[in-house]
Amino acid sequence: MTDSQTSAAQPWYRDLAVYREARVWQIFGFGIISGFPWVLIGSMLSAWLQEEGLSRGSIGLFGIVFVAYSINALWSPLVDRFRLPLLHRWLGARRSWIVLCLSGLALATLFMSTLDVQNNLYWIAVAAVAISFFSATQDIAIDAFRIESFAANESRLQSAGAAMATAGWWTGYSGLGAIPFYLVDGVTYSWQDAYWVLLGVLAVQLLFVIMVAESKRYHAIKQVRVQGFRWWTWVQQTFVAPVVEFFTRNGWQLATALLTFVFVFKLGEAFLGRMSIVFYKEIGFTNDQIATYSKVITWWVTIVFAVLGSIVNIRIGIVRGLLIGGAAMAASNLLFAWIALVGADTDLLLAAVLIDGFTSAWSTVAFVAFISLLCNRTFTASQYALLASLGNLGRTLVSSYSGFVVDWLDGNWSLFFILTSVMVIPGLLILLALRKRLGELEADYHRHQEAD
């Protein structure tokens, strides 16, 4: 009997037992580390640039700095195979890379705190690119750490891990992301001062990584060692083999369809997210209101529904979870179109962030579990980074033009949010078309787990 069948045969509340596992809470901590850099170059930077008078189009273009998340698959094999001198012996394969990247993030954040928008816009962009690069690189190691923390036949723990990774990411992005907005809402702190405060958060994260034990039970399968200086063999094993294995295992038609779905599924959410802070400030919400509603409330809603979403996905399956979550995500975007028509109504904003937090958590947990399922453990970091970076492509290059879209619509925010809802439909259609094949894939996955 598979994990999903076993789970369906017992009361739902017993599924919560997996959250007593220490490994799951470690994943939560790493999720916080993964989500926090998006504050530094996402919502916080957008608000700073908006207050300094930059146009919507210029603020949207700053989203290009996130391109590192879309191309980190290019250097993910190096994270998989290259062992950092000294740090690897002390911390292990995954944590050594995370510590290196956190150190780089701290230096780039320190540099950002010394700049001002009017005179140093170019260097702010450079610092943002550096933060994006270090963050995208540490995500490779964090995702591999999460997947390798559980055995192949621990699907319930993998699902719980996906939920806690999502909850942790939103804790880092929304929970900790509220700090700079509360600080700057008065007259005591500037945005540069807020970056100084957030350096302390990075220091705490660094201590957490050093203290956590790296899993020694479920590491990726060792690859064949290359003898001598056979550089072409090394290139094949490092960069070519993960891609070839993915297409060989799934067949080129299913593999292409899967990659297309991963690319388009989050496009609407990415467009909304890139312009949300600009929208809130233009419509009349204060920094304090943005921190409370968009950050703190979204944070707790996402954590609760990430956990509940993982339980539901265990019972109904990942594919159905994606369908339900995607459809709800498209519908929730329409609430922001309503706010655009009504104005700065905090009650309506509360309803919007509650529903959006629920749908975002549900769909994200299913999405993370889905692409984790597609990975071969021989190439854990490489294949997950390939799929995750493809999904992030819409969140970077495509969504970077969201500000120009708002300008093209003559500032019609309501129509813009309706457009973000429509953008979810292609992904749902692909999922419906592949539903039978994906159901078979999920069933095969559970059968292999049972065999293990």
UniProtKB/TrEMBL annotation:
The chain crosses the membrane at residues 24-48, 54-75, 96-115, 121-142, 162-183, 195-213, 254-277, 297-314, 321-342, 348-372, 384-401, 413-434. It is found in: Membrane. It is a multi-pass membrane protein. GO terms for cellular component: membrane. It comes from the Bacteria. The keyword Transmembrane helix applies. Keywords: Membrane, Transmembrane, Transmembrane helix, Transport. Gene3D superfamilies: MFS general substrate transporter like domains (1.20.1250.20). This is MFS transporter. It comes from Pseudidiomarina aestuarii.
